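[Automated response] Your request has been received and processed.

Submitted sequence:
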Amino acid sequence: MVATLESVCADATKRPECQAIAGRLNVEARYLPGAAFRKLFNVLKHENTANGSRLING
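Generated structure:
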């Protein structure tokens, strides 16, 4: 599941639509590849679990 999510995020950040939205928000559209992505995913998963959120379930 995490590998699929990473791949989708990588593809999405390259899309013109994502770049345009990022530009309007004055942020950089990017993702963290490999181990860095999994590390952040696990941190967010833990935070969501601690807060009772079911948004990330994997």
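Summary generated for your ticket: The chain has one domain: 2-50. Residues 2-50 form one domain.
If you did not submit this request, please reply to this message.
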